[in-house]
Structure formats: C-alpha cells, structure tokens
Amino acid sequence: MARSRIIKAAVAVLAFSTAGLDQAAAQSYPQLTILVGSPTGGSYDLYARVIARHMGRHLTGTPSIVVQNLPGGGGYAAVNQLANTAPKDGSVIATFSRAVPMQPLIDKTGVHFDPQLLEWIGSPSDEVGLALSWHKSPIKNLADLRKNGMTVASTGPGTDTNVFARVVANVLGIKLKLVSGYRGAADMLLAVERGEVDGAVGISWASLWPNRKDWVENNQVNFLIQLTLQDGHERLKGVPRIIDAVTKQEDRDLLEVIFARQTMAYPYAAAPGVPAARLAALRQAFAATLTDPEFLAETQKSGMAVKPVTADQMTAIVKRVYASTPAMIDRVKAAMSAPNE
C-alpha cells in the first residue's frame, strides 16, 4: 500500500510539473524571430514580412516579430541553424526553399537536420510552376512541345527552372535545351520576350502574377503545362497538369514525390523539441494570420496568393515522401539528372 501511495504521489508530481511546463510554454512571447533562408526581395522574404506584420496579434502578449534573412547553402543555412543552435522554446521559426525538405532524399551534402523531426507550422500558399512560351512562338501547347521541343531559360543547377526542366525532358520524353545563367525569374521572362529562348520551364505563377499581369490578361504567353499536383489559378483552366500528361501509375507516383514541394511552397517550421503548448500556439497563430482580414487586404493589394496549407498537411506530405522505396528514390534521381548523365 505504501509503495502504491508513493507511485501515485510521484505521478501527481510529474503531472503537475508537465502542466507547469505547458503553462510556461504558452506564456507571452517577448519577441519572435522568423529566419528566412533567402535574400531580401524574393517571394519567401515578402511572405515572411507580411506575416510578421500581422502574426503578433494572434500570439499571447502581442510580441514584436523580427525577420532575419539568412541565405546560404541553398536554404540550408537557415534550417540548419533552426534545428541545431536556435532556442528550442518556439521563439524562432524559419521559412526556406520548398526544395529543402525533399533534397536530403537525393543528396545529404550540407544537411544537418532531419525534415521528419522538424515541427511544421504551415504555408501561406501552395505554388504552381509553369512551362510557358511567348505568344509569337509556334509552340502553343503541350502537343507542340512534345513534337518540337524547345530552348528554355534557367537560373542554374538545383533550381526549379533547372530541375523541373530535366524532369519534363526525362519523364515526358521531350527534347529541351537549357540555357543557364539567368539571375532570376525577371531575367528569364525578359529572355522569353526578346526571343533569346523559346520559353521557360519551372517559372512560378507567383513570379508571373502580378509582376507580368498584363502578359496574362493580354494572352502574351502560352501556358503549356502546370507543374503542380493541385488545381492552379482559375486563369490556368484547361492547361494540363504534368501528372495528367502521363498514363502509367509508376510515373504518376514518381511525379507525386518530385512535385510534393509545390504543395508545401513556402514552408514554415519550428525546431524539434519545442514544447507542445507553444507549438500549438504557433500553429494556431499562423493559421489565424492567414485568415486575418488585415493580412488578406495587404496580400490582395500586393497580388500575393493566399491558399493556406496546414501543419497537418505539411507533416503528411513529408511522411509520405520519406516513405518512398529505395527504387523510387533512384527513379527520382534519374528524373532530375541531365540527359545522358
């Protein structure tokens, strides 16, 4: 009996202590930092700064939120810091390239984190990549692209415009010639307009709209394929998704692994080990921000897409991708390789 009372007392003390930790985790934030794994001015940075202006209202204590850019290593600098040296109290979260959670499957060079252990918070939107050509081009649709191939602009190795072009070439059997070295989406679109290249593969809808809104409204570009697993913008109705361009289930499975990053789009995560109550508070505040009228008014004015992806959805995506068999990973590597590589 005495032993039973001792055990019950110990359990009660542990429960009290855990409740105390959870209560502490939910206390006011003095400040929240958002690490951005890319330079200022890009889509990841812009989303982070708008979120920072509104998310504090949805956290206890209405903390100030600081955006800190930490580019480097293809986005790894920010997530490595988050996972290894940042405080584990939820006072630091990070956003980074959508390729980062998936890249360790392909190459672990520079990776000092496990995507499966990160605490996912959500994404403000999914993303649609596009294969497109200029309106004067004879390549008007996917059938033309399959028949003729084309020369496409690319920023360089590892980027969407490089990787996705290789996937289109390898999986769909389309002849593409990559012209690399462009600094970003704006330069690539200018090259398309000037006729330096036939088109581009992997340009995001967010880069085109609203920056080249007139091109869309005036039908100055031909949309050939949507590089996404989701339904795209209403203006892209009738444009086939890449997953609809294959007939074999094994190819659909392959594309689902590769393009899962498009659903995550602008991922936000907290470090492993953040207390449960504080993690829940971060997720709730993030979700509330994405439906906040003031946030939506600002994003609408700026032409930024908002199509929230939840923490549960993000976690499920990572779990599904990392359940891929070794044979599937080999196929992913082959699809992302240069022809004859």
Molecular structure report:
- The protein is an alpha/beta fold and 341 residues long.
- Helices cover 42% and strands 16% of the residues.
- The chain has 14 helices and eleven strands.
- It has helices spanning 2-25, 43-54, 76-84, 142-148, 160-172, 185-194, 205-208, 213-217, 249-258, 260-264, 276-289, 293-302, 311-321, 326-335, and strands at 31-36, 64-69, 92-95, 119-123, 129-134, 150-154, 176-180, 199-204, 221-227, 268-270, 309-310.
- The strands form two sheets. It has a six-stranded mixed beta sheet, sandwiched between helices. Strands 7-6-8-5-9 form a five-stranded mixed beta sheet.
- Helix 2 links the parallel strand 1 and strand 2.
- Helix 1 (2-25) runs parallel beside helix 11 and helix 2 (43-54) runs antiparallel to helix 12.
- The longest helix is centred in the N-terminal third of the chain and has 24 residues, at 2-25.
- The N and C termini lie far apart (72 Å).
